[in-house]
Write a structure and sequence with these properties.
The structure holds 3 protein chains of 3 kinds.
Chain A: E1 7-9, H1 14-23, E2 28-31, H2 37-42, E3 50-53, E4 63-65, E5 71-74, H3 79-83, H4 86-91, H5 93-98, H6 113-119, H7 125-132, E6 136-141, E7 144-149, H8 150-153, E8 154-156, E9 159-160, E10 167-173, E11 179-188, E12 197-206, E13 209-218, E14 225-226, H9 228-232, H10 241-254, H11 265-282, E15 290-292
Parallel strand pairs in A: 1-3, 2-3, 11-15
Antiparallel strand pairs in A: 4-5, 5-10, 6-7, 6-10, 8-9, 11-12, 12-13, 13-14
Helix pairs in contact in A: 10-11
Chain B: H1 7-10, H2 22-25, E1 42-48, E2 54-60, H3 62-66, E3 70-75, H4 76-81, E4 86-88, E5 94-96, E6 102-103, E7 109-115, H5 118-126, E8 129-134, H6 141-145, E9 163-170, H7 172-181, E10 184-195, E11 204-210, E12 215-220, H8 225-236, E13 243-246, H9 262-274, E14 278-281, H10 284-290, E15 293-305, E16 311-321, E17 351-358, E18 365-366, H11 375-393, H12 397-404, E19 413-414, E20 420-421, H13 426-437, H14 439-451, E21 455-464, E22 476-477, E23 480-481, E24 484-490, E25 496-500, H15 509-521, E26 528-532, H16 549-576, E27 583-586, E28 589-592, E29 595-601, H17 602-611, E30 622-627, E31 636-645, E32 652-662, H18 669-688, E33 693-694, E34 700-701, E35 720-722, H19 742-758, H20 773-782
Parallel strand pairs in B: 1-14, 12-13, 15-18, 16-17, 25-26, 32-35
Antiparallel strand pairs in B: 1-7, 2-6, 2-8, 3-7, 4-5, 9-17, 10-15, 11-12, 11-14, 15-16, 19-20, 21-31, 22-23, 24-25, 24-30, 27-28, 28-29, 31-32, 33-34
Helix pairs in contact in B: 11-19, 15-16, 16-17, 18-19
Chain C: E1 22-28, E2 31-37, H1 43-50, E3 69-73, E4 82-85, E5 98-100, H2 119-126, H3 136-149, H4 155-161, H5 173-189
Parallel strand pairs in C: 1-5
Antiparallel strand pairs in C: 1-2, 3-4, 3-5
Helix pairs in contact in C: 2-5
The chains are: A alpha+beta, B alpha+beta, C alpha+beta.
């Protein structure tokens, strides 16, 4: 319950933070929400030499839509801000469905979406949402800014492509061409549980036709799974029962679940299929997002 | 004319008096063990084994000793030179304090560090190098008795295998005959999984050995301070009068804080060696992975039935997995606790129970978690078997129970396993429950829903259980009889203090014991302060667990109050200048029978005890009572749960939970209801999500709150409680019975029976708890029973 | 406030004097404080050991139980602060910020925990919302944040807001009743709103 020793800095600007990481030595970590990092440090599964706390850097706690509809989420935007967001509720059904089921209400006051993506936990919910929406991470380092598509961002469990002296400053969700629909369903046994299975579906429609689709899976593989064939099966036509069934089957095939104390691989595949079907069957952002055992 | 006191107004029996202990807790002014800081105090952390079964080849603590701020590093070898590497358990076995030859479960204590602060102590633990040689692992009884199984307790002479005991009770031959006569034999096999009481507060101690006075004071999270004092005297070989155990506020016990843990022993030794206070507070992982767990027992049950539904006989074969050491805190005559209280509420002519205990590579324990000494297991097995039997006969669940209950007129009733029941109204209890839940309506709705593909289910659980261990003829722990005590001192102004040998951990003794005094003496409850937990001041008692405090300590409070009243009567006669025979009592006042206006209050009698005694009377108004209960008390209950199961996902929701509890006279109805709701929540938790399991390597799954799931306010259903059925206990001085554990004992089967009922028609007889969505789905989809026994399933 | 450390001398071994202490300034229950802390000191330990405010409790290792919940308010934030699990923040992170603990819940009176009770505290006693008391401070702080934001919550709102706080004793039903009791009392006590209508 006690972290090992580390050095700590709390810069008040991004440049300062980047500078600290640059000179920081072997193992430095950025601290934003800390709701994933601090527990790991307390269990001594992570023992960084240097912590760079960016909570004093102003101007990072925003989430907003640009004029063209691009959604930008700053590095210090908390899950709770997204849960309460009228913007998300009115224009981002997949995100609005996921925000309330991240961890628990108190953790949501500190944890951040960007931090969650950087943490790259294979059972992280936001990663599936951002993957389904085709989002990216904007990173800043000594060499400037770069944008990394989410599909390229994670290289393995708890590993991302950021350089040691880069900070993720923003998550970007591209604007929709059509009308957004979709949702996030998570099988958790209680509030705060990791997903046994989580499914993010993000669609854009023009009239009856699905013009874009993204489906991503939480908890059924070594990392977040993009169910590309499942998404492709939906594009270019209306949401018929047949097309939904096909997408659900492809998604179940894309899953690589393990049999463990959370359930058999067979069950998890079945739940992937079930969640895809249910989200597509509703295609309403206001439906309850979770399946719980209560 | 003086008016009679209103008992409810003064806070006597039946008053839902607001709790005295709340005043400090709501202000954040509780005094829990970790809140206490003593001058010069050091901090202890424990290094635990990552492996479930391994030989220790070497331990190198040299780097730990070098860390600034480290005062002491204790290892098994060092303990061994002081004869402290092993300690006796409460079940006549031995348990390792710090491992010497082998580690026998994941999380076992291997070393501990005492340092200036816990951060440094943790750093030093990390710097200790242990070289392990892994050994094969055993995680269930079948593996324990398989050919070629490694002997886990090779430290014990004469231990050639992994069997701890065989125990049986009942009439084997008679039961066999009954089975030969049966029209139908109903069988059921299941596993009641390992669970853990997991109070939010972990275990801990502050040991303070004072070299100047040679007195050892230990602040400790313990539900039984006097038992601990005796154990410490035995283990540490210190004289009993020089040991003081203080149990401060406890953040939940549920049986987890009864055993003696290695951490306590190490902190005591460290304090003696360093001559400074040493604080050990474990972390949640330590608590879940190493302290007294509960259950982990397999049932193979059979019921012999007549075609009309009469139960002719019951056979139970149980395998209990005790972990690496047999350390249960339970009455010594009963190796498997009171498991043989099963079926007490039913009129069964003959029965036979066989139990076997085995070792495994898991933490030691088995008796804990609101279990009343394995009555949780007894009643779960009972109601699951009753459910299966009714189904096998094609009989209605309620009717089958009703027909087999012991009838109201048949008390006293001796069960085939030898318990003596003194009272009960089981049919009325069931009827109240059925009416409250709308049983007939629900069955109709259930059918209609099924036609539309929706799965509704209703589960009943009815039981009576023995609470209040226990009478000295049959009950003892390590030979010490299980009585309890109360000391009452009435001061000259009529205010009082009562101390007992119990130890509340949230049950509200500071509030309720005063209510008993109020009832007996008419002193307002707010004028009575209650203290427990300090062995230097509290009269000897066996502690609070197994719902024994109201039955035993509460009875002692009533009895000592009556001793006080008897003396007060003499004082009253003296004050009123009449003979004792002419004195009558009403609440708070003695009066002259022939002239009722002439009377004295209890307060006036108290003053007289210090200032105006009759000739020959000892002054003062103080006394002590030790209560040896003549029998256990027999609360009974009916729990009914309705659920809906989502056939696609296996997720189930509770629609209604009805609880009808008869615990006799309720001292404080508000507190009683709080206990019932707490028990129902634990029942729900065990049925729905909560368990500890192990993989094939003995890694513990459930050693932190990410894996050991406790329901939150969001999942936990609401409860409808009923108190219409009141059968006062015939032998308890105030007619009260135990209640703290009833809902945890009877509740789980109601939830499980409801889900199984929802699945009726699929042929599924059993899904082991917890009924996780994947298990329910598997049962539904493949039409098969689902077991949850370890090792955890995997792809390999 | 003063914190005194062991002087391990100049020859002290590795690690002891490598990591500089940090000086932090913060407010707790309205009182301004300065502390010198190791960066790795958890906020919960600063509160319990550094400040002696032991009403905030430690229950688990994994940020689940919520017994350590306090309110933290950043510079420039409105309101009394958001509930956070103090075991999952570093003490250094409250530099420049305000914390509220259970000891500060009481409405008036000298010192911590000595004044008139907050309706939440009264409600927990009235409705038997606690048994062992260990989860209670965390529950009340989380409930306070709920009522600050939503003075008229439904039962569902309360259960949702408290779903980050675990209780083993009560079964939550009376905790919900306690919070609703407090909400009703706070509404009754609240001044009439600006347009003259009753709250």
């Amino acid at each position: 319950m006690y972290p090992s020793r580390f050095r700590y800095e709390a810069p008040s600007s991004l440049d300062e933070a980047i500078g600290l990481l640059h000179t920081g030595g072997d193992y430095a970590k950025v601290l934003a929400g800390g709701q994933s990092l601090v527990p790991l440090m307390k269990l001594r599964f992570a023992s960084p030499d240097l912590i760079v706390d960016i909570n004093n850097v102003p101007g990072l706690d925003y989430h907003r839509a640009d004029a063209d509809g691009t959604l930008r989420v700053g590095a210090l935007c908390r899950h709770a801000d997204l849960e309460r967001s009228a913007l998300l509720k009115s224009s981002q059904p997949t995100m609005a469905a996921a925000a309330p089921v991240i961890a628990d209400p108190i953790v949501r006051n500190r944890g951040t979406l960007v931090g969650s993506l950087c943490h790259a936990d294979p059972q992280g919910d936001w990663a599936s949402v951002v993957m389904a929406l085709g989002g990216s991470i904007v990173a800043r380092g000594p060499g400037g800014r770069r944008t990394i598509p989410i599909a390229d961002f994670v290289t393995g469990p708890f590993q991302n492509v950021l350089d040691p002296d880069e900070i993720a400053v923003e998550a970007v969700i591209p604007p929709a061409q059509g009308t957004r629909a979709g949702g996030y369903l998570k099988l958790e046994r209680r509030v705060g549980d990791f997903a046994t299975v989580g499914v993010a579906v993000a669609l854009e429609t023009s009239g009856e036709t699905v013009t874009r689709a993204g489906i991503a899976l939480t908890g059924v593989g070594g990392s977040t799974i993009a169910a590309a064939a499942a998404a492709a099966a939906l594009v270019g036509g209306p949401l018929t029962a047949d097309r939904i069934g096909l997408a659900a089957d492809f998604a179940a095939e894309a899953a690589q679940p393990r049999t463990d104390h959370r359930g058999s691989a067979e069950y998890k595949r079945h739940m992937v299929r079930t969640f895809v079907t249910r989200i597509l069957g509703r295609a309403q952002p206001t439906e309850p997002a979770t399946e719980r055992a209560a | 004319m003086t008016q009679a006191l209103d008992e409810i107004k003064i806070g006597g029996l039946g008053a839902s008096r607001k709790r005295v202990e709340d005043d400090r807790f709501i202000r954040g002014k509780g005094n829990y063990t970790d809140d206490i800081a003593l001058p010069g105090m050091l901090h202890m952390e424990i290094l635990r084994s990552p492996l479930a079964h391994a030989r220790i080849k070497s331990i190198d603590a040299s780097k730990a000793w070098e860390i600034p701020g480290v005062h002491l590093v204790l290892t098994g070898d060092m303990m061994a030179t002081r004869n402290l590497a092993w300690m006796p358990t409460l079940s006549y076995d031995t348990q390792a304090v710090l491992a010497t030859d082998k580690v026998r479960f994941q999380g076992q204590e291997v070393a501990c560090v005492i340092a200036d602060d816990p951060y440094i102590a943790k750093d030093a633990c990390e710097a200790i190098d242990v070289d392990y040689e892994p050994l094969p692992v055993i995680v269930n009884p079948a593996q324990a008795v398989a050919d070629g199984a490694p002997v886990i307790r090779d430290d014990k002479e004469n231990q050639a295998d992994n069997v701890i005991y065989h125990w049986e009770v009942g009439d084997a031959a008679g039961t066999d005959r009954a089975f030969e006569q049966a029209d139908v034999i109903s069988k059921l096999k299941l596993h009641y999984p390992r669970s853990h009481p997991s109070p939010i507060e972990c275990c801990g101690s502050i040991a303070d050995f004072n070299r100047a006075t040679s007195k050892l004071t230990v602040y400790m999270t313990t539900q039984a301070p006097h038992i601990i004092r005796a154990a410490v005297a035995l283990v540490a070989e210190l004289p009993e009068h020089m040991i003081r155990i203080i149990s401060p506020d406890i953040g939940g016990g549920f049986g987890n804080k009864v055993p003696v843990y290695p951490g306590y022993v190490c902190s005591i030794l460290a304090s003696i060696l360093l001559e400074r206070p040493v604080k050990w507070i474990e972390d949640k992982t330590g608590n879940l992975i190493s302290t007294g767990f509960a259950r982990d027992i397999y049932l193979d049950g059979e019921m012999a039935l007549r075609r009309d539904g009469k139960i002719l006989g019951v056979r139970m074969h149980c395998d209990a997995d005790h972990g690496a050491f047999f350390s249960d805190a339970q009455p010594s005559k009963f190796k498997i606790g009171l498991l043989h209280s099963a079926f007490a509420a039913y009129d069964i002519p003959v029965a036979h129970l066989m139990a076997r205990g085995t070792y495994s590579n898991k933490a030691p324990g088995g008796v804990a978690y609101r279990c009343s000494f394995r009555v949780t297991e007894a009643m779960f097995f009972q109601e699951r078997m009753v459910q299966a039997a009714a189904d096998d006969l094609g009989m209605d669940q309620a009717e089958f129970r009703r027909m087999n209950f012991v009838r109201d007129e048949d008390f006293p009733h001796r069960t085939p396993f030898g318990f003596l029941l003194d009272s009960g109204q089981y049919r009325k209890c069931l009827d109240v429950g059925l009416k409250a839940v709308g049983y007939a309506d629900f069955r109709r709705q259930q059918e209609e829903a099924r036609a539309r593909g929706r799965l509704l289910g209703i589960g009943i659980s009815t039981m009576t259980e023995p609470l209040g261990a226990g009478n000295s003829r049959e009950y003892d722990i390590l030979g010490i009889k299980m009585f309890d005590s109360a000391e009452l001192k009435v001061h000259m102004t009529g205010k009082a203090i009562v101390r007992t040998g119990a130890r509340t951990q949230g049950q509200g003794h500071e509030t309720t014991w005063a209510q008993i005094v109020s009832h007996e003496l008419g002193i307002p409850a707010q004028d009575v302060v209650v203290e427990e937990g300090d062995t230097d001041t509290a009269p000897f008692g066996m502690g609070t667990y197994a719902s024994r405090s109201t039955p035993v300590a509460g009875a002692a409070v009533a009895m000592v109050s009556r001793k006080i009243r008897a003396k007060a009567r003499k004082l009253a006669a003296h004050l009123l200048e009449v003979s004792e025979e002419d004195v009558e009592w009403e609440l708070g006042r003695f009066y002259v029978r022939s002239a009722p206006d002439r009377g004295v209050t209890i307060q006036e009698c108290a003053m007289a005890a210090y200032s105006n005694m009759p000739d020959g009377m000892e002054p003062g108004l103080e006394n002590t009572a030790y209560y040896d209960p003549p029998n256990l008390t027999w609360p009974f209950a009916c729990y009914i749960v309705t659920v809906e199961v989502d056939p696609v996902t296996g997720v189930w929701d509770v629609l209604t939970t009805v609880a009808v509890d008869d615990c006799g006279v309720r001292i404080n109805p508000m507190i009683v209801e709080g206990q019932i709701m707490g028990g129902l929540t634990e029942a729900y938790a065990m049925a729905n999500m909560q368990f500890i399991t192990f993989d094939a390597e003995g890694n513990c799954v459930g050693s932190n709150y990410m894996d050991y799931l406790l329901p939150t306010a969001w999942e936990t259903p609401g409860f409808e409680l009923h108190s219409e059925v009141v059968t006062p206990c015939p032998h308890h001085p105030i007619g009260a019975k135990g209640i703290g554990e009833c809902a945890a004992v009877g509740g789980p089967a109601a939830f499980v029976n409801a889900v199984i009922d929802a699945l009726s028609g699929t042929g599924v007889r059993n899904i082991d708890m917890p009924l996780l969505p994947d298990r329910v789905w598997e049962a539904l989809t493949h039409h098969r029973d689902v077991s949850g026994a370890p090792p955890v399933r995997s792809d390999d | 406030m003063t914190i005194v450390y062991e002087d391990l001398g100049d020859e002290a071994g590795a690690g002891a004097s490598d990591v500089p202490m940090r000086r932090i300034r913060f407010t707790v229950n309205g009182q301004k404080k300065i502390a010198e802390v190791e960066p790795r000191l958890l906020l919960s330990h600063l509160i319990r050991r550094g400040l002696g405010l032991t009403g905030t409790h430690m229950g688990c290792d994994t940020t689940n139980c919520g017994a350590c919940t306090v309110l933290v308010k950043g510079a420039g934030e409105a309101g009394a602060g958001r509930p956070v699990k103090s075991c999952t923040m570093l003490a250094v992170q409250v530099d420049g910020r305000e914390i509220s603990t259970v000891e500060g819940l009481a409405m008036k009176g000298a010192g911590e925990g000595g004044g008139e009770l907050h309706p939440l505290q009264e409600g927990f006693k009235e409705e038997h919302g606690l048994q062992c008391g260990f989860c209670t401070p965390g529950m009340m702080m989380a409930a306070k944040a709920l009522l600050d934001e939503n003075p008229d919550p439904t039962e569902e709102d309360v259960r949702w807001a408290l779903s980050g706080n675990l209780c083993r004793c009560t079964g939550y039903q009376n905790i919900v009743k306690s919070v609703l009791w407090a909400a009703a009392k706070l509404r009754a006590q609240a001044p009439a709103s600006e347009d003259g209508s009753q709250p």
